[in-house]
């Protein structure tokens, strides 16, 4: 354990020092311009002002490209393990990121050279003092003065002094790395506009995933229900009517292939594989859906009124899924006979009605029974389209699912 901790500390120290050295190297271009902006012969105040202005202007120019912030984030994450998120580019405040990038570069390009110089100085002193004492002794030049390191016991103080200098260099590199790590999270991390954009993107992604989960539930649920009925029918007819049993098994194969296509479509979207995408079913495919239900052994009557092709694409796709889920519930909980589907377009609205004989009598209060995921999914789709729905047993002893959807968004 001690070896692991010691290795991690040494690695963190070296990375912190390399990060400071990178700041010193990046500071060379603005430093050169700053020296040109402060020529000798001018008053000291003007030279200081020219130096600071030239340095700041070059740093601001370095922060202008969008790649500058991304490069800073990669550098601080690679050497300091700051965990700064990848920058976003919100259209609302594009200059906010550049200003914070400029502030970060100004901090890095001033603190980095200072830390790199001071750590090198302390490391040089920590190694030179004991070396001079172990040699023939003498004076060691330190900045503007000299430090005596005589040979013999009188110069033994150089050993703890050298260790102190090395420890100071390590602490300085570690402290500066920790301070720059915190500053990087503040200056290079997401600002308010980016956090809002990220939250909106997460909400869109979550909505898409929930939508895909609902679509997959509807498609696979319908296929499993139909396949179960077909399998039961095939077992009953296996001896009496082999040809009908074969047709039932063939229908299971077809519906299973369609379910696999839906599954590939959803997985392709989740994996961002556009090659697997395919057109989603709409009201124009109600005939195919009705054929699948009839092939499952159920009796179904499909009625349409108006021009379903004029229904907006979004409403048409959702309406198809609503009918599909209602039919799945009818097959799962009904008798499989006397199913009626009606889709009508009139007066700018789409009205859907799916009815089937109810297995259980209506509740005394006229309320529907237990509501599963199917009705909840229908309610969610209807709510998103700003429509209305009702589901439950009626006085005629049939289970009704009635949906009313506007074809245009209300102002």
Description:
The longest helix has 46 residues, at 192-237. The chain contains eleven helices and seven strands. The strands form two sheets. Strands 3-4-5-7-6 form a five-stranded mixed β-sheet, covered by helices on one side. It has a two-stranded antiparallel ribbon with strand order 1-2. The chain has 411 residues and is an alpha+beta fold. The protein has three domains: 2-132 and 167-190, no CATH class; 195-278, Up-down Bundle (Single alpha-helices involved in coiled-coils or other helix-helix interfaces); 283-411, Histidine kinase-like ATPase, C-terminal domain (Heat Shock Protein 90). It has helices at 2-26, 28-36, 44-62, 66-80, 94-134, 158-187, 192-237, 242-270, 286-295, 313-333, 373-384; strands spanning 138-142, 145-149, 300-305, 339-346, 349-357, 388-393, 398-406.
Notable characteristics:
5-stranded mixed sheet, 411 residues, EC 2.7.13.3, elongated, Heat Shock Protein 90, phosphorelay sensor kinase activity, two-stranded antiparallel sheet, 12% strand, alpha+beta, Single alpha-helices involved in coiled-coils or other helix-helix interfaces, Sig_transdc_His_kin_sub3_dim/P, kinase, 3 domains, phosphoprotein
Question: What is the count of helical runs?
Answer: 11
How far the N terminus sits from the C terminus, by CA atoms, comes to: 67 Å
Low-confidence stretches: 361-371
Instruction: Report strand order across the widest sheet.
Output: 3-4-5-7-6
Count of DSSP strands? 7
Largest sheet: 5 strands, mixed
Q: What overall form do the CA principal axes indicate?
A: elongated
The residue fraction in helices comes out at: 55-70%
The share of residues in extended strands comes to: 5-15%
Mean pLDDT: 76
Structural class: alpha+beta
Instruction: Indicate how many domains the architecture comprises.
Output: 3
């Amino acid at each position: 354990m001690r070896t692991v901790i010691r290795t991690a500390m040494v690695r963190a120290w070296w990375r912190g020092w390399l990060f400071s050295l990178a700041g010193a190297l990046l500071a060379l271009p603005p430093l050169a311009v700053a020296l040109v902006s402060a020529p000798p012969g001018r008053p000291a105040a003007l030279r200081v002002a020219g130096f600071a202005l030239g340095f700041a202007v070059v740093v601001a120019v370095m922060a202008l490209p969008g790649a500058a912030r991304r490069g800073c984030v990669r550098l601080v994450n690679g050497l300091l393990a700051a965990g700064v998120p990848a920058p976003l580019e919100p259209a609302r405040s594009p200059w906010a990121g550049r200003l914070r990038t400029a502030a970060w570069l100004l901090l890095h390009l001033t603190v980095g050279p200072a830390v790199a110089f001071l750590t090198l100085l302390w490391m040089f002193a920590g190694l030179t003092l004991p070396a001079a004492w172990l040699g023939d002794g003498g004076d060691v030049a330190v900045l503007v003065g000299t430090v005596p390191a005589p040979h013999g016991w009188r110069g033994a103080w150089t050993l703890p002094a050298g260790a102190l200098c090395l420890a100071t260099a390590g602490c300085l590199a570690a402290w500066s790395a920790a301070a720059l790590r915190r500053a990087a999270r503040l200056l290079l991390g997401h600002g308010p506009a980016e956090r809002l954009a990220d939250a909106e993107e997460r909400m869109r992604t979550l909505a898409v995933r929930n939508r895909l989960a609902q679509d997959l539930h509807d498609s696979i649920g319908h296929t499993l229900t139909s396949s179960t009925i077909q399998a039961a029918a095939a077992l009953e007819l296996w001896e009496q009517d082999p040809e009908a049993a074969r047709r039932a098994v063939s229908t299971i194969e077809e519906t299973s292939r369609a379910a696999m296509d839906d599954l590939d479509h959803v997985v392709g979207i989740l994996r961002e594989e556009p090659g697997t995408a395919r057109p989603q079913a709409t009201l124009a495919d109600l005939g195919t859906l009705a054929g699948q239900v009839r092939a499952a052994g159920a009796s179904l009557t499909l009625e349409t009124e108006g021009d379903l092709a004029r229904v907006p694409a979004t409403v048409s796709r959702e309406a198809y899924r609503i009918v599909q889920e209602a039919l799945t519930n009818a097959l799962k909980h009904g008798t499989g006979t006397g199913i009626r589907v009606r889709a009508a377009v009139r007066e700018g609205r789409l009205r859907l009605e799916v009815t089937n004989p109810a297995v259980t009598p209506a509740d005394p209060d006229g309320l529907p029974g237990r509501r599963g995921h199917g009705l909840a999914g229908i309610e969610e789709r209807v709510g998103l389209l700003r429509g209305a729905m009702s589901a439950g047993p009626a006085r005629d002893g049939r289970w009704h699912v009635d949906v009313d959807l506007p074809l245009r968004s209300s102002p």
